[in-house]
Amino acid sequence: MAKLISIASGKGGVGKSFCSSSLAISLNAAGHKVLLVDADLGGANLHNFVGLKVPGVGLYNYIRERSELSDVIVRSPAGVDFIGGSGDVLGMAHITKFEKIKILTGLKNEDYEYVILDLGAGTSFNMVDMFNVADIKIVVMSGEPTSIENAYGFLKVAIYRHIERFLSKRWDFAEINKKLRSKSMNFPSVQSIIDAAAAVDKAAAAAIKSFVSAFRPGMILNQVKFKRELNVFYGFENVVNKYLSITIEKLGFLPYDEKVSECIKLLKPYYVRFPDSETVGCVDDIRDQMIAKLQGSGNE
Ligand SMILES: Nc1ncnc2c1ncn2[C@@H]1O[C@H](COP(=O)(O)OP(=O)(O)OP(=O)(O)O)[C@@H](O)[C@H]1O
Ligand SMILES: [Mg+2]
């Protein structure tokens, strides 16, 4: 079974597609069998990062037109196997639960070591669910305050939804679940949810505590202009730990580099064009951290 790696962010435009495509090329260069998937169902553009002008066949053909998954995989000019998204197809952003399961189980069963999902920005349930089921969950953010706030907001929705889905199997948690499902999510912290659950059933509260501590999302700081921005890591880590009881794995950072946007416009993958750059060195470091994290979690 392939390991699923999901790459998400709260805010758009922080560099999910740059990070996911670069990581895929880096894994491929290190001899791993990897499939890169554009799961940004509303605004697909990942094809441009791997040297393709148009997405071609993609997830849409797989879920709506009965194509086999293997029929929609193409070998991209960047050298990695790729499944394009279908941003211009109306309704694609609103896939059903059945279609989501079909995508995820199909991908896991393909003959790859790693499948990287480049998710769309924001907290739609489809994105959050694809994030939560991944073996490696990665949040990309930049040092800008809105990006940090949105990354926090994304993780909050992700972990609250994870807990809600666990509790939804039992009628005696109906009260807590109703509060969790409301727009304001009504609990000030994950610990306060665990406390409320403990008042109903201590074993269930312990189970929540244990999957929350196993959640461990990775974090990449992108578009770093000054080294001092790396302090964002520590502030973010503390706040997430305090309110969400989640431990962050710091996977690394990528510097701000004007050549990134030039490469996208020219359809020349940055990693292939500038193999000796500092940025590519950082991508390789993130790749190694990620593999180490996967082995450390006992998933291997
Ligand atoms: N490290 C970087 N240095 C300089 N520019 C960057 C860097 N990473 C990304 N960019 C620029 O930011 C823009 C957005 O990057 P990207 O498309 O990867 O973000 P995204 O999070 O996938 O966006 P969306 O939410 O729209 O899918 C790109 O056009 C690119 O030019
Ligand atoms: Mg993107």
Could you give a short description of this structure?
The chain is an alpha/beta fold and 300 residues long. Helix content is 47%, strand content 14%. Helix 1 (16-29) crosses helix 12 (278-296).
Labels describing this entry:
binds adenosine-5'-triphosphate; binds magnesium ion; globular; eight-stranded mixed beta sheet; 300 residues; Rossmann fold
Explain this structure.
It contains 12 helices and 8 strands. The chain has one domain: Rossmann fold. The N and C termini lie close together (10 Å). The model has no long low-confidence stretch (mean pLDDT 91). The protein is α/β, with parallel strands linked by helices. β7, α9 and β8 form a beta-alpha-beta unit. An 8-stranded mixed beta sheet has the order 3-4-2-5-1-6-7-8, with helices on both faces. α1 crosses α12, α5 runs antiparallel to α8 and α7 runs antiparallel to α8.
**Strand content of the residues, in percent?**
5-15%
Helix-residue proportion: 40-55%
Note the overall shape: globular
CATH hierarchy class name: Alpha Beta
The biggest beta sheet reads: 8 strands, mixed
Radius of gyration: 19 Å
Oligomer: single chain
**Low-pLDDT regions:** none
- The CATH level-2 architecture is identified as 3-Layer(aba) Sandwich
User: What small molecules are bound in this structure?
Assistant: adenosine-5'-triphosphate, magnesium ion
SSE arrangement:
Blueprint: E1 3-8, H1 16-29, E2 34-39, H2 59-64, E3 74-75, E4 81-83, H3 97-109, E5 114-119, H4 125-132, E6 136-141, H5 145-167, H6 174-181, H7 190-200, H8 202-215, E7 218-224, H9 231-244, E8 249-255, H10 259-266, H11 270-273, H12 278-296
Parallel strand pairs: 1-5, 1-6, 2-4, 2-5, 6-7, 7-8
Antiparallel strand pairs: 3-4
Helix pairs in contact: 1-12, 4-5, 5-6, 5-8, 5-9, 7-8
This protein binds adenosine-5'-triphosphate and magnesium ion (MG).
Residues 16-17, 40, 45, 118 line the site of magnesium ion.
